[in-house]
Amino acid sequence: MSTSDHLRLAVALSDAGWHPAAWREADARPGELFTARYWADLAAIAERGLLDLITIEDGFGLQSTDHLAESDRRTDQVRGRLDAHLVAALLAPLTSRIGLVPTVTTTHTEPFHVANALATLDHDSLGRAGWRVQVSARADEARHLGRRALPGVRREHLDTPETARVVQELFDEAADAVEVARRLWDSWEDDAEIRDDATNRFVDRDKLHYIDFSGDHFDVRGPAITPRPPQGHPLVTVLAHREVPYRLAARSADVVFVTPQDVDDVASVIGDVRAAEAAVGREGEPLRILGDLVVLLDHTQAAAQERLARLDARDPLRSDAAILATTPSDLADLLVAWHEAGLDGFRLRPGVLPDDLNAIADALVPELQRRGAFRTAYDDTTLRERFGLSRPASRYATAGSTA
Amino acid sequence: MTRKQIILGAYFPGVNHDTVWSDPASGSHIDFASFAHWARTAERGKLDLLFLAEGLRLRDRGGAIFDQDVVGRPDTFTVLASLAAITSHIGLAGTINSTYNEPYELARKFATLDLLSGGRAAWNVVTSSDADTGENFRRGGFLGHHQRYSRARETLELVRRLWDSWGSDAVVADKDAARFLRDGDVGDFAFSGEQFDVSGRFTTPRSPQGHPVILQAGESPSGRDFAAAHSDAIFSRYQKFDEAKAFYDDVKSRVAKAGRNPDEVKILPSAAVVLGDTLDEARDRHAEIHHRQVDPQTAIVLAEMVWNRDLSRVDPDGPVPDLDPTPDAPKWIRGRAPLTQDAHATAAAWRELGREKNLSLREVVKHVFDRAVFVGTPESVADEIDRYVRDGATDGFIVGSHVSPSGLDEFVDRVVPRLVDRGVFRSEYAGATLRDNLGLAPPARFGEPRRHDSSVAS
Ligand SMILES: Cc1cc2nc3c(=O)[nH]c(=O)nc-3n(C[C@H](O)[C@H](O)[C@H](O)COP(=O)(O)O)c2cc1C
User: Fold this and answer.
1) Which CATH number applies to B7-275+377-438: 3.30.420.10, 3.40.50.10490, 3.20.20.30, 3.90.226.10?
2) Luciferase-like domain location, by residue (chain B) (predicted)?
3) Taking the CB of the first residue and of the last residue of chain B, which one, N or C, has fewer CB atoms within 10 A?
């Protein structure tokens, strides 16, 4: 099997793990969730497992049992977050190969700041930065900034026309934010810095470009303050479950995270993603599609099921993604089968940290390697290259040297 | 009695004419390797803090992007968080303006940086004097000078409220008792002012130093009052002894008027240092560096910042021009902090200086912009630094150089040890947090009396 046939493997890091009772497990470190050491240790495990990338969850509000709902005032679950982008920045010099993909909302942030920040993460990590684009629909998060009022989205109303309109608007804004970021990343051509002693010019101003973006939510003039990042564009990712987010992914992203519930569902989800690509007239490279799965791993099926049941008894786990409590070997079989069904790879959400992350790195990955489905060493590439994606040329480069 | 301890910071060279990019030693001002070199050098010297300036648009002149000086810079928060990983004691100070950022996001980012660095974050609050910066942001260009400080004041008040919304004991993380947070109201906040009407729950725990250290850089009367009332330290540009002392006395009296102890606000001018083995060698080096910093084109551009008009037809080697400044015209140069509050007075002063000393425009500019206050041998520079602090002109300095990133090496290797020998600078860090090292008390939590321990949240 050639490297490009290998499945891609990402992990999603969140709090003490994705299970709400994870923080109470024996090896959990709930008192350290807000320290550098905790995140550095997790990244080291992921890199030991040769994983392609880690994503880091975030939000402008506190976690809630229903993530669409407002803060629920519970004190018996993990509450509190660090800024995911800065966690990724901390990890950049502490890691050398793994992709670093923070979640950053487009709803309450300035696209100019976000674009420069992600470009800088790419510089600091020598070409390993990505972005998980997220919208914030919560009313309480909007009140934290006070600059716009959002009605909030209730799970029961997801299919009403009013909610659909709000959601559509947030995703349109997200598409604009990514478009601005990509233009800003292009606004410095690669060789804009010339340091030409003879003409006393530090930059060639013909290789710096105003982007003059104008949209419904913001206008941005540019150019970026941060020179073009090593990857050209950091890897843009979107988590999507439905048509509206599929379209955002198709318009704006390089990689989409999807949530098929079983192997039959894989084909239908992929069909929906490809339909969205056609609907928006996507050009260039197709989306890379990674399936999201919550995983709890143990030595035997029974032990894994028992472990999940024990955790669920404390606090039940609900998820948009399929939940698999199984052995590393069975999970490897499943990933290979779903990969053959068309997924480019997976983003695993460890149920318990660090336990399930350790199991991924030290048991699942060797199982996949044995099946010839996963590489045995890091190749020397940028994050984009690892996904078989080319380095985009600056869209302004051909506009040439007349300012 | 122990001598008063000098505070020393380091600013990263770049993005102005002071940085001589054509110097063979000049490296990248973007690559993280440059920041890492600079930070490790500063920490080797046990300096108090690292300092990054801010600029949120590329500079332009007459509508065209300015191409002579170093331009482009990485995002401040990102660089500081990456530096947190490779340093252990030094403060991480970022200049971030209060005009084009929302308090909630600023509070989250600084709280995160403070937690990830173990209590070493500092925020240099600026208001951005350049309305054209708004072209890159949702709000567009907005806010006059006065409103900028009123927004800054409210921003800071709200941000502090958010930092205070988690007590230092809010995270219990008791597995057996199934209690993660102490209470269901951790993080609650509400604030209603002229600029902000916000409420909810803040996401990020309190850091080991309670609040990041607050720095300020502004020099108008409203800027000075703002700093006197709200900051822990002030970054200034007054470097000549008499100017520095006048600024120091003025600001410290404003601090007292604001009802605070003058020692609570540290004053830290920026200072470039040029060293030589002999005084003559140092002077020669300085002359050479300064000659390259203020080349003929740069002299014109710096004059244009005062005149606010195109002076490209003026001979830099001729006299200071007799033209009138046009401060009310559309801005000719954008993306740089203003040089003067009163263009006519400044132009007149430059003309006078030129006549009096028979100096060309370029020579006048060189005279006005001589940032290298400390030119000499390591011994004489240490003497001077010591004198400024002893004689009450400053509490310390934020040191820079004309070369990125190795320009700090010489200062750390040759001047710092002499300050240590004199007993006016530390040889080991005193504490874990930036507040500990600056001798600042931990902030009182909103609504609670001031406490003198700052226990770690986790
Ligand atoms: C020493 C010094 C350094 C400054 N550095 C910055 C900077 O890095 N970025 C910025 O936007 N403004 C900077 N400023 C400008 C101030 O933030 C302030 O916005 C401006 O001076 C207008 O306020 P004022 O009228 O009170 O001086 C600096 C000012 C001084 C005096």
Assistant:
1) 3.20.20.30
2) 26-394
3) N
Q: If you search the block for the tokens 């947190």, which residue do you land on? A: B84
Domain ranges of chain A: 8-135+235-387
Taking only Cα atoms into account, the Rg of chain B, rounded to an integer number of angstroms, comes to 23
- Asked whether B219 lines ligand 1 (CB < 6 A), one says yes
Multiple choice CATH, A8-135+235-387, 3.40.30.10, 3.40.50.1100, 1.10.3720.10, 3.20.20.30: 3.20.20.30
C-alpha A297/C-alpha A126 separation (Å) is: 33
Please indicate if any CB of chain A lies within 8 Å of the CB of B287: no
Per domain, the residue ranges of chain B are: 7-275+377-438, 280-369
User: pLDDT digit of tens for each residue in chain B (458 aa)?
Assistant: 578 899 999 999 877 888 999 999 999 999 999 999 999 999 999 999 999 999 899 988 998 999 999 999 999 999 999 999 999 999 999 999 999 999 999 999 999 999 999 999 999 998 876 777 889 999 887 777 778 888 999 999 999 999 999 999 999 999 999 999 999 999 999 999 999 999 999 999 999 999 999 999 878 888 899 899 999 999 998 988 999 999 999 999 999 999 999 999 999 999 999 999 999 999 999 999 999 999 999 999 999 999 999 999 999 999 999 999 999 998 898 887 777 778 999 999 999 999 999 999 999 999 988 876 799 999 999 999 999 999 999 999 999 999 989 999 999 999 999 999 999 999 999 999 999 999 998 888 876 654 443 333 33
> What kind and span of H or E run contains A213?
strand A213-214
Is any ligand 1 atom within 6 A of the Cβ of residue B95?
yes
Q: How far is CA B133 from the centre of its chain?
A: 19
How many angstroms does the Cα of residue A292 sit away from the middle of ligand 1? 47
The response to whether residue B217 sits with its C-beta less than 6 Å from ligand 1 reads: yes
A303/A297 Cα distance (integer angstroms): 9
Assigned token pair, B310: 């195109």
Give chain B positions within 8 Å (CB) of A180.
none
Instruction: Answer whether A309 touches B (CB < 8 Å).
Output: no
